[in-house]
Design a protein that fits this description.
Elements (H helix, E strand, L loop, with lengths): L4 E2 L5 E2 L9 E2 L4 H11 L5 E4 L14 E4 L15 H18 L4 H16 L7 H7 L2
Helix pairs in contact: 2-3
């Protein structure tokens, strides 16, 4: 069986983070770019680190700002990847610390749970009530 990988490469978009994440089997441009096209508005500015898969993202029509962590650059104006990196960190710690391991069958559900938490982290209403309203 191929190793399933979380797609850590999906870019951080502007200041408003609405996480939409999914597992992938690889992080090649041929895998990642269709996901980006499907989930990222054409008018969005895409902020990434220097992961090579993003070398050609401008060809998709996106404005692209690359934050070069290798050069010890963490922020360029409003451009940074801290929020999405925080999301991936919380997801990985949640899986390892709370669930310990997950099967491929249920992985998308765990990703969705942490995406929901991230997307509603600044809500005034308690998150539990937001979940109840969706039932």
């Amino acid at each position: 069986m191929k190793e399933l990988r979380l797609d850590y490469s999906l870019p951080h978009l502007c200041q408003i983070l609405n996480v939409s994440a999914s597992p992938t089997y690889d992080l090649k441009a041929s895998t990642v770019y269709p996901i980006v096209r499907k989930r990222v508005l054409p008018t969005a500015t895409v902020y990434t680190d220097e992961f090579r898969t993003y070398d050609s993202i401008k060809r998709l029509g996106y404005k692209h700002i690359r934050v070069r962590h290798g050069d010890e650059v963490w922020v360029i104006g409003d451009a940074h990847t801290d929020t999405i990196e925080g999301f991936w960190s919380l997801l990985k710690r949640g899986i390892n610390g709370v669930y310990h391991s997950v099967s491929e069958k249920w992985l998308q559900n765990y990703i969705n749970e942490y995406g929901f938490r991230c997307n509603h982290r600044k809500d005034e209403k308690p998150m539990f009530l937001t979940v109840l309203e969706k039932l």
